[in-house]
Write a structure and sequence with these properties.
Blueprint (H helix, E strand, L loop, with lengths): L5 H11 L21 H8 L3 H9 L7 H11 L3 H11 L4 H4 L10 H8 L6 E4 L5 E4 L1 H7 L8 H7 L3 H4 L3 H16 L6 H13 L1 H9 L7 E8 L3 E11 L7 E6 L5 H14 L4 H15 L4
Antiparallel strand pairs: 1-2, 1-5, 3-4, 4-5
Helix pairs in contact: 2-3, 2-4, 4-5, 8-14, 9-11, 11-13, 12-13
């Protein structure tokens, strides 16, 4: 990843995804570029072509807030992507971004809280979507895969990912968009560099989605699973920021009351109860965190 011109990379990627006709422009029979031309973006945003070219090439790196908003409007960006574009235009120095460490250790208080949720799967994710902790039902929901402790690699590298996720295409898009939102502008994070490097080499679909520069925070959604033990599950999840540990997300799953998924989840919970207490499981995770920095 070239972290020297993140603003230019983002603008170019989003420009190439647009079709001229979407913005009332003629497509033209001799169009040689994907998406909009640079001069078309400049015209629609009310800036000079030369200025916009300098933005994409990295020769101009700090457009005003008004220019950023105009570009976001032309590029059709959603709220999370608009905020990201403003971050790229006014990046926080790396020393300030990393102040206080990486925050990979999960709070014992949060672990105890999760242990009490016997009917609710819950996991704590790190910035690169590694599973830092889980309660017993959260472990049962994802276990049995080659990459159960790393949701990014589970989606793109696990041989049974498309079986586990019936809506795999949608999950893949949201996973990459969520990863970009989670890391913000910190593209020189060694863990991110390692993950993106590996996945870019091993997954063509990841490479394609990463190049789109989609940005969407993991917030709430309905997701379908095909669990190897209890079958189909349709679960709503809510992703909550852990304020005491920047970069961590608490993801909590629930089934609709009275639904077949609620019964399946209850069955999974009863099977899990015989595997040992959730507390012992959490203590084991914490020991692994102390040794490795994250649970995998």
């Amino acid at each position: 990843m070239d972290s020297e011109n993140l603003l230019g990379q983002f603008l170019r990627a989003r420009r190439e995804l647009l079709r001229p006709e979407d913005l009332g422009l003629p497509a033209g029979a001799r169009r040689r570029v994907a998406g909009l031309r640079r001069e078309e973006v400049a015209m629609l945003a009310g800036v000079s072509t030369d200025y916009y070219v300098r933005l994409e090439q990295g020769r101009e790196r700090h457009p005003s807030a008004q220019v950023v908003d105009a570009l976001a409007r032309v590029l059709g960006l959603e709220e999370d992507a608009v905020a990201h574009l403003h971050q790229l235009a006014r990046p926080v120095p790396a020393a300030r971004r990393r102040k206080g460490g990486r925050g990979e250790r999960v709070s014992p208080v949060l672990l105890r809280m999760m242990e009490g949720w016997h009917r609710t799967p819950a996991v704590v994710l790190g910035r690169c979507l590694t599973v830092l902790a889980h309660n017993a039902l959260g472990r049962a929901l994802f276990e049995g895969h080659a990459h159960s402790g790393d949701l990014l690699r589970l989606v793109f590298l696990d041989p049974d990912a498309k079986e586990f996720y019936p809506d795999w295409d949608r999950v893949a898009v949201s996973t990459v968009a969520g990863l970009r939102a989670a890391v913000g502008t910190d593209y020189d994070d060694p863990q991110l560099i390692e993950a993106v490097g590996e996945l870019s080499l091993r997954s063509e679909e990841f490479r394609r989605l990463w190049a789109r520069h989609d940005i969407r925070q993991k917030a709430h959604e309905t997701k379908r699973f095909r669990h190897p033990v209890v079958g189909e599950l349709t679960l709503d999840y809510e992703s909550l920021t852990v304020n005491g540990a920047p970069g961590q997300q608490l993801v909590v799953y629930q089934a609709a009351p009275g639904s077949p998924s609620e019964h399946a989840l209850s069955l999974l919970g009863s099977l899990t109860a015989g595997d040992g207490s959730p507390q012992a499981s959490q203590q084991e995770q914490q020991e692994q965190q102390d040794q490795k920095g994250f649970f995998a």
